[in-house]
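Task 17 of the worksheet. Students: predict the tertiary structure of the chain below and write it out as structure tokens. Keep your answer in the requested format; marks are given for formatting as well as content.
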Amino acid sequence: MLPKMLQKGKPRFWALIESSGGCYEMGELNEIWKSPPGFVISQIRSHQILALNREDGTLCIPRFQFDPKTSHPFPGLQAVLAATESWPIEETTRFLLHRFDPEHHDKRPIDYLREGKLSVVLDLADTHLTQRP
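Model answer:
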């Protein structure tokens, strides 16, 4: 039963990514940053930026983590990724994109990060970690 539930969640997960700006391809981001080959992959491996594997094996580098003005990761993203390093990357992505307290406000952790409120995001991550099964 669980695998069927997980399969149903995949389209919703990818729809969430798309509704949050979609993805960069590795080559596209290398070109935007004017970086040498291998730079983006080194950023992914060193947990500087998020990257997800699509079912076809290609990498999706979610755009929501980048400042639209500079195309660089939001300040504080590295600290968030370090704090959530033990989490599956999909969980970190969901955490950043879902409203934490929808009854009181519409802000998501990524919104706080965009506002420069890293401490709020880290507190929310700590709360999330203690509440998950």
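Marker's comment: The chain has a mean pLDDT of 90. Residues 42 and 48 are 8 Å apart (CA to CA).
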